[in-house]
Amino acid sequence: MTYKRILLMLCCLIATVVSQASEEQRDAILSQITGAQMPKTVINIQKMGAKGNGTSDCLPAFRKAFKKAAKLGGARIVVPTGTYYIKGPLHLVSNVCLEIQEGATLKFAPEPEYYLPAVKTSWEGTFVQNYSPFIYGYQLHDISIIGKGTIDGNAMTTFATWRNKQKAAQQRSRDMNHTETPVAQRNFGEGDYLRPHLIQLFDCERITIEDVFITNSPFWCIHLLQSENAILRGIRYDAKLVNNDGIDPEMSRNILIEDVHFNNGDDNVAIKSGRDHDGRNAACPSENIIIRNCHFKGLHAVVLGSEMSAGVQNVWVENCDYAGYCKRGLYIKTNPDRGGFIRNIYFKNCKFDEVEDLFYITSMYGGEGQDNTFFTDIENITVEDIQCRKARAGGLVLQGTKAKPLRNIQFRNISIGEVKNAISFDDTEDVILKDCHFGGKAGVPTQVTDKDNLFR
Question: What is the Cα–Cα distance from 256 to 272, expressed in whole angstroms?
Answer without folding.
Answer: 15
